[in-house]
Specification:
10 helices, mainly alpha
Length: about 325
């Protein structure tokens, strides 16, 4: 099933899932790849880190609300061009547009997350806006945001290249040559990373030299990022596993506390029933004694009755004889 798919294609599918579904689906994919004999790819899939909520919301925006993200990307390219052209009037106008556009894009990301059952806190919403601002200030950060493989929020001051260390699940997608651009995983934007760079380069004029210098710096930075990526992925995975284990521990402890309460309640009820049974047994013993005494009294009363009956019979016979003698005398 997985044969013919590379890491970027698999990651593109996995990062469309919600954070709560990601880990299980990732592990299932890794197992399937191992069964197919693709052990090296399986290892890399197993190391894919779960994204933060804010990064996942940006990925969801790239997949589910492409037009909202493209508006941000396009405005960012215009801002960079105006800055390179030193055009203050255009910069002011574009900055005003940015003030209006960013809240709309953040709202779109929150709405997309809500439809998937994920709540985006105000803090996560602030990270989404921060990430989109960084994407507007830096072409490579823009490509990272459009990749749909973002792992954590981005930061940018508009002066230095945005630090993308550990920011993209498959960093190779950011530096593939233009000839392989069609193979890159993309969000619903329908644009790959190579196209984003070419479109941005087509808009640049006098600042082309400065951009090349910046690109060289970013290339060097990207090489450093790739060297650190494995460690960051493993750390992120360990943290995700730790969080999941902690959550499972909390649930197990809650379950244990519940069962302990149930066991204590059952034991108390058993003690109450045992005490009641002891009282009933004692009462039965008392009643049995009372029945035995009553039976003895009844037997004695019956004997007395029989004796009294015999005495009555005897006296009746005596009265009868006395009457007979009295009659004879008359």
């Amino acid at each position: 099933m997985m044969r013919g798919m590379d890491l970027a294609a698999i990651a593109a599918e996995l990062y469309t899932l919600t954070p709560r579904d990601f880990t299980g689906a990732r592990n299932d994919r890794a197992k399937e790849l191992r069964r197919e004999g693709q052990r090296a790819l399986a290892q890399r899939v197993a190391r894919l880190a779960k994204p933060s909520v804010s990064a996942w919301a940006v990925n969801a925006l790239a997949v589910g609300r492409a037009e909202a993200l493209q508006s941000v990307v396009a405005l960012g390219a215009q801002l960079r061009e105006a800055q390179e052209d030193l055009d203050p009037g255009r910069l002011r106008a574009l900055a005003k547009d940015r003030t209006q556009l960013l809240p709309q894009a953040v709202a779109a990301a929150r709405a997309t997350a809500h439809r998937s059952g994920i709540a985006v806190s105000d803090a996560a919403a602030a990270e989404i806006e921060q990430t989109l601002r960084a994407a507007m200030s830096d072409a490579l950060a823009s490509a990272a945001v459009q990749s749909g493989l973002l792992l954590h929020a981005l930061e940018g001051n508009g002066l230095e290249p945005v630090d993308l260390s550990g920011a993209v699940a498959v960093p190779e997608v950011l530096d593939r040559p233009p000839g392989t651009a069609e193979a890159l995983p993309v969000g619903a934007t329908g644009h790959n990373v190579g196209e984003a760079h070419r479109a941005d380069g087509g808009r640049s004029r006098d600042g082309a030299g400065r951009r090349r210098t910046g690109d060289a710096k970013r290339k060097a930075e990207q090489e450093r990022q790739q060297a650190e990526q494995l460690r960051r992925e493993e750390r992120a995975e360990a943290e995700a596993d730790r969080d999941e284990a902690a959550q499972a521990l909390d649930e197990a402890q809650a379950e244990l506390a519940g069962t302990e309460r149930d066991a204590a309640d059952a034991a108390a009820r058993a003690r109450r029933l045992a005490d009641e049974l002891d009282r009933l047994r004692a009462r039965i013993t008392e009643l049995e004694d009372d029945v035995a005494a009553a039976e003895r009294e009844a037997a004695a009363a019956e004997r007395a009755r029989k004796l009294a009956s015999r005495l009555v019979d005897r006296e009746l016979r005596a009265v009868s004889k006395a009457r007979e003698r009295l009659a004879a005398l008359d």
